[in-house]
């Protein structure tokens, strides 16, 4: 378990630090970046938020609040509180057109910065839990690496970066969006900012 949580945080830190991110969209408070490596597409959404970084961290690390701003989350319940910093959740998401509704079993690891210049981190990855086997009504999907890094800008503002390494399981939701025919990522980012502020 300790290894899983360590590798969860490490994978997100590694993804965030990769060179070669391309900016695809810039709005007032939101920038969207993509990174392609072989068959893996990652994206980063950078949001400017007018709340202190510790407030954004406490709101974003509690995934039971996620439905309040992310319409992709239908339900989200805690399956296991592994420690104060790690929880395992079961998430269900709405079906994309022509697809079965999906579900995920995810480990959410949160870390406060050790040094002032470091970000707050909320890392997410799929895990397998015997107690929650795949069910026929959902298509069990996997999150390789996702999460938030929250950088403090001032005592009353921060930059929230959301990362997601996209697998084919998440692709139906994003394909339309990245070609520009849907504003799903932008809309979700704006909802997130509104929720945090």
From TrEMBL:
Gene assigned in the entry: Acot12_1
Q: What molecular function does GO assign, one term?
A: lipid binding
Q: Which Pfam families match?
A: START (PF01852)
The record, for PROSITE patterns, names: START
Name of the protein:
ACO12 thioesterase
Task: Give an example GO cellular component term for this record.
Answer: cytoplasm
Q: Say which domain of life the source belongs to.
A: Eukaryota
Q: InterPro entries, from UniProt?
A: START-like_dom_sf, START_lipid-bd_dom, START_lipid_transfer
The START domain sits at 18-166
